UniProtKB/TrEMBL annotation:
Region of interest called Disordered, as start-end residue ranges on this chain: 381-418
Keyword Transferase set for record: yes
The species this protein was found in: Pseudonocardia hispaniensis
Residue ranges occupied by any Glycosyltransferase subfamily 4-like N-terminal domain in the UniProt entry: 17-174
Name of the featured protein: Glycosyltransferase
One GO MF term: glycosyltransferase activity
Keyword tRNA processing belongs to the record: no
Keyword annotations from UniProtKB, A to Z: Glycosyltransferase, Transferase
Annotated Glycosyl transferase family domain residues: 198-353
Record lineage: Bacteria, Bacillati, Actinomycetota, Actinomycetes, Pseudonocardiales
């Protein structure tokens, strides 16, 4: 028998920012005190990384982002069955869909403590008012069964409190962790990074890292590169996703006014970051992107959209430049300013790197999770949370396995992720 606290971390996709933070948090915990399992609907290289690190990895293919009543009901049923059988002490959910289904399943299963991380918010200005109202109502109901709401960045935490998505005393602001320092941006590493990307050593490069998905607005990146009117400048997007085919078409149409290279998903992101002269992220909405923190740590000047918690790290004129979302011409103008004023860009990059301190170190995230998991806050519905580690059986490290068979039945709420 073991006295380790048993934690089930549930995430829709073990990939991109939410997946990185979920995995980094799990790995930052003391293995002598915590036995952490990862439950994911899908994932990429991070699944293997989690298993190689000794974490138990469970797959539930029905846990998917798109609207699918049959899959949603199947995922809820399977997660509930899984959690009842496992008898975990803590369930920690990440991302909107896993956050909804995972918290309901944990509540139904009688899990002692339920923690949710808001990496961003499932509603935004680019949705209809009716859809936003629906999402807010759902989140408010879920907040009643949530012991601790961890918010990635101050902007997210402020919105969670303002909208009443969780009781104020349950809201905590955390940072992100990226699992190590990126390669510093110096001439030697820049030349090597450009070699890895197949780029000439003497061109100016504007880069972005993120999923090719609606949230990240990659089409605005291409539009900004066209609006830049500098065909000698190369735009590079690192990351894959559902819009990959569309982006290849847009990149082709941008020629010859702009050259945009789609580098796809890569395991060596930290090694290729030094290739960028400017990092530009045009997201429609965000929490606090890991990619921006990594770019700043690398020493690259940043332009980003003024959404959610991005301003926690991108302070206009001091640590980078902010532009409104969905305004590619303004994004292009900000990028041009940094390219044309390298001394100012270098000053901002240095200031950004210095400002990060240890806020985004793995140990800082680990400390925040420890406080969330062992706190004594009673839930609004009156159920008591655990005061400390519960006794649990030791588990062998296993490769990813399926959680359960799928089933179908209408679900009374829509998809929570665009």
């Amino acid at each position: 028998m073991s006295s380790r606290l048993r934690v089930a971390t549930i995430v829709t996709r073990l990939e991109a920012g939410a997946g990185e933070v979920a995995l980094r948090g799990a790995l930052a915990l003391d293995p002598a005190r915590y036995a952490v399992s990862i439950v994911a609907g899908s994932g990429s290289r991070l699944l293997g990384e989690a298993a190689s690190a000794g974490l138990e990895v469970l797959l539930e293919p029905a846990l998917r982002s798109p609207i699918s009543p049959a899959d949603d009901v199947a995922a809820l049923r399977n997660l509930t069955r899984l959690l009842r059988a496992r008898r975990d002490d803590v369930v920690h959910t990440h991302s909107a869909k896993a956050g909804a289904l995972g918290r309901i399943a944990a509540h139904r299963s009688g899990v002692g403590r339920i923690v949710h991380t808001f990496h961003g918010l499932p509603y935004h200005e680019f949705q209809s008012a009716a859809r936003r109202r629906t999402y807010i109502a759902i989140e408010r109901r879920l907040g009643r069964i949530t012991d601790v709401a961890l918010c990635v960045g101050t902007g997210v935490a402020v919105e969670v409190v303002r909208r009443g998505l969780a009781a104020p005393e349950r809201v905590r602001t955390i940072g992100v962790a990226s699992g190590g320092l990126p390669t510093p941006c110096v001439p030697r590493t820049r030349a090597r990074a450009r070699g890895l990307l197949g780029l000439p050593a003497d061109v100016a490069v504007v880069g972005a890292v993120g999923r090719l998905a609606y949230q990240k607005a990659p089409e605005d990146f291409v539009a900004a590169m066209v609006a830049l009117r500098r065909p000698e400048v190369v735009g590079v997007w690192v990351g894959g996703g559902p819009l990959a085919e569309r982006m290849r078409t847009l990149a082709g149409r941008a020629l010859p006014q702009a050259r945009v290279v789609l580098a796809g998903e890569r395991a060596d992101v930290r090694e290729v970051l030094p290739a960028f002269d400017v990092f530009a992220l045009p997201s429609r909405y965000e929490g606090l992107p890991v990619a921006i923190v990594e770019a700043m740590t690398c020493g690259i000047p940043v332009v980003a959209t003024a959404v959610n918690a991005v301003s926690d790290v991108v302070v206009p004129g001091r640590t980078g430049l902010l532009v409104p979302p969905h305004r590619p011409r303004l994004l292009a103008a900000a990028v041009a300013h940094l390219l044309d004023h390298p001394d100012e860009a270098a000053r901002m990059a240095e200031s950004a790197k210095a400002s990060l301190g240890d806020r985004f170190a793995d140990r800082t995230l680990g400390d925040a999770l420890t406080a969330a998991y062992v706190g004594t806050t009673a839930r609004i519905d009156g159920r008591a949370a655990p005061d400390g580690p519960a006794r649990a059986a030791e588990r062998r490290t296993r490769p990813p396995v399926a959680v359960g068979e799928t089933d179908a039945r209408p679900l009374p709420f829509p998809e929570l992720e665009p």
